[in-house]
Amino acid sequence: MKITYIEHSGYVAEDGDRVLIFDYYKGTLPAFSECARIYVFASHNHPDHFNREIFGWAEKYENIRYILSDDIEEKGPQGRCTYIGPYQEIHVDGMNIRTLRSTDEGVAFLVHEGGRTIYHAGDLNWWHWEEESEDYNRMMRRNFQQEIKKIEGETVNVAFLTLDPRQEDQYAWGFDYFMRHTRTDCAFPMHMWEQYEICERLLKDSLSEPYRDRVMEVKRRLQTFEPAL
């Protein structure tokens, strides 16, 4: 499997002629064959996770499908879009797709394809903000942990997880909790606002010692990885 970091929370996972694109909102895509089977996922309607530009790709790629959170109101090409809410499960071309509820908007995706499991968090994260009340932060912790408990102990081959520098000292709470409560082979940081030094910070942080060999260091746009899965 080939993984390409696009920008922010945007990633592409290529497995043979099957291409999964997650949370594109801007940036340059890799070149795909016009015969590729392309599946475009959007976890929610925030403008840093969804851009209606994705619907224009249907003019170039005949075999394209869209799996979209149901809070996205824009309607894409007829017959090619599936809208999905939290705690739903669908089957698309041999893929099993499940969702969790975000702690912000929309869903997180758990995609079973080709014998592998891919997780994309969207904005499902342990959000903690110093300027918010204790009650708010306590609620966020509870809601996040309840969602991850639904997949606790599950094997995840590839996980795209939030690592947000705006959270300051709490930047890795969600990432760390996920890694300690799932069996994740390979984790890719996202939502870094192009501050890639936050990834290096995690890899040097004693917090990550139990799993740092499974965290991919993202340094630039269009960086590619080919993990052995």
In short:
The protein is α/β, with parallel strands linked by helices and 229 residues long.
Question: How would you describe what is shown here?
Answer:
This protein is α/β, with parallel strands linked by helices. The chain has a seven-stranded mixed β-sheet, with no helix packed on it. A six-stranded mixed β-sheet has the order 7-8-9-10-11-12, covered by helices on one side. Helix 1 runs parallel beside helix 2.
Q: Biggest sheet, in brief? A: 7 strands, mixed
Distance from N terminus to C terminus (CA atoms, Å) equals 7 Å
Number of helices: 3
Radius of gyration: 17 Å
The average pLDDT is 97
> Looking at the structure, what is the overall shape?
globular
How are strands sequenced across the largest beta sheet? 6-5-4-3-2-1-13
Helix/strand/pairing class, anyone? alpha/beta
The stretches of 5 or more residues where confidence is low (pLDDT under 50) are: none
Tally of DSSP β-strands: 13
